[in-house]
Amino acid sequence: MQDHTSPSSLENSIALQKFGVGQPVRRKEDDTLVRGKGKYTDDFNLPGQAYAWIVRSSHAHGIIRGIDTSAAKAMPGVLGVWTGTDLAAADYGPFTCGLPLKNRDGTPLLQTNRTALMTDKVRYVGDPVAFVVAETLAQAREAGEAVVVDIDPLPAVTDPDEAAKPGAPQLYDHIPNNVALDYHYGDAAKVEAAFAGAAHVTKLDIVNTRVAVVAMEPRAALASYDKASERYTIQVPTQGVAGNRTSLAKNILKVPNEKVHLLTANVGGSFGMKNINYPEYVCILHAAKALGRPVKWTDERSTSFLSDSHGRAHKIHCELALDAEGKFLAVKVSGYGNLGAYITGVAPLPLSLNIGKNIASVYRTPLMAIDIKTVLTNTTLMGPYRGAGRPEANYFMERLIDRAAVEMGINRLTLRKRNFVKPAQMPFTASSGMIYDSGDFQGVFNKALEISDHANFAKRKKESRKRGKLRGIAVGSYLEVTAPPNVELGKIVFEDDGSVRLITGTLDYGQGHATPFAQVLCAQLGVPFESVKLEQGDSDIVHNGNGTGGSRSITASGMAIFEASKLVIEKGKRAAAHLMEAAEGDIEFGNGRFTIAGTDRSIDIIELAKRVREGKMPEGVPSSLDVDHVTEPVPSTFPNGCHVAEVEIDPETGIVQIVRYTGVNDFGTIVNPLLVAGQLHGGVAQGIGQALMEEVSYDESGQPITGSFMDYALPRAEDIPSMEIGDHPVPAKSNPLGTKGCGEAGCAGSLSTLVNAVLDALSEYGIAHIDMPLTPERVWRAIRDAKAA
User: Cα separation of 281 and 234, whole Å?
Assistant: First the structure.
């Protein structure tokens, strides 16, 4: 039976050349989003909806003596005013950290058990203490300003090292010295012995700047409650609906999963920040149930700076021990991570565990010791931010290497080459305990030097000097241990109209999943690219999966799609054998068609799905080709690369300009090079922001002094250089597609490279270190002080 109504094997093969794995296919959603036709959370509305306004503390630390809501309740349009006492009566669960992290003595980390609204103390400026719901947003805001909160101020502390000292203001009675987690990794005795026998030890004190996320789309939510079914529904931007639904239902609302329906549409950026549930969501869900009507809340940029989780924030002392030839013997990291006022989600992870997992990077570093105290302070809560500890760890290591090279009189490039893990050593067990399955770190390094024209830097430096500019260059390698192993959903549904629904538990919040996921499915099943429809944002459909985060999407969903496709093919062979009256063992599959071996009798997979669905199949023959599959935990991957940055500095003003930037990366099998380049550009841009201009700051009383774009600088288009991008792929052996994560690599490669390039330019003044951000003022002051010394 040759089906002539569907594409031939040759036609499918030609289509795969255009839309298959490795092709630079444009993103499916671009036409919608670029034209402003996307639908974000604030675009959703429900009949009869009311509006919420959150009342927040103006004190960084203090005891709540009382909250007077009487005036607010009497104002026009007000439907209700609630405080923490009201929510406590509903017995909602607290916001906690679910990670099994332990202190050095084996005890678990100390939880802060945050409630949606505070009843005893406030612990940072912006801490929510009450909320108002009214007919209009203006009425809710006006009533919110009428709520009188009586707070007795307490001394505040914003620096983690100060917070951990005896006598510092205590945020919680049960957390001595504000240390929620005293993290240790490594064999301290062996590390100390290695340092004692080292020919040279390099030491650095490094501040890893606190940054605000400032996603394009502020957080927002629209909640409703159906009394008949006792079911909550919330439209909210997330990084994955299944995990967030479970967390909200099980841990906070204390209801079965099926009693919560979580929806996510387009998401305007997240970078880790939107991957947890927040107090505002509990508030409006409570109000929707109490009022019997939908309630909407949309954050404003000014309050986003206060209420959204921040990222980074370390104060670190690090040391590198080397032998006389410059071989690495051991690395030590100690210091403090700033948790902010509460612990939720995975907040301690970037500040502790992920430093140890990533600091060995691409180098043969036999030993490490990680000793970091994660400390509570009177500041906005902390969370993952693009890279979540991986850029930080690579930054610490690359700064140490550049400094060691200067101190030992060894060329910076030579020092790195002497310590690379070699391809012949794969699989390589790093001192972190991670097992690198693949990589050619020297090859990546060599290609970066070639593409960046490193050999002719001296000529460019001479030309810059003629114009009165300082020029610097830096070459930095990085390696990331991507997200910890988790299961993922791969669900394939063949529809009546010939389309194919692909459902998976990761979630696109700007990455462009629809295109590469369709490319993978097309490569596996030969279905038309245009027929694939991706669904990720409805918890009723996406019943499993761990969301997008940690550069896991193409690897996790890719494996899920691969495995689900194999199951489709198995079902298809049984069905095709029945329809074409052949033995199942004689059925072959390729280019989207099931064929009887040695004949021209075949049927297209879309047509087969239709006939199976519409016909009455006998016992043992599938009645559908649809598959609902959950993988086993998908292993981590180890993307790596080498970036080269060149900067020019005006010594009269301290202004830094990035004049050349090169990034060569090993992302394993590249499904879509166009999207990979875009991800890399975005990551580098965020690295530029942190390295040169971004910093969240507080005054001594805990008041934020970077609460708007007037105070908090972000890179603009003119700050982002043209980038030369190169690939040196070594496919991963841990997943069937051979992919490695790419979404956060730009941050991992750019932080150290940019800072080291600036310091290279300043080295003629004897300037060895400046902490981020390298603003014009800091650079100018460093030059002035060096000249005066």
Answer: 8
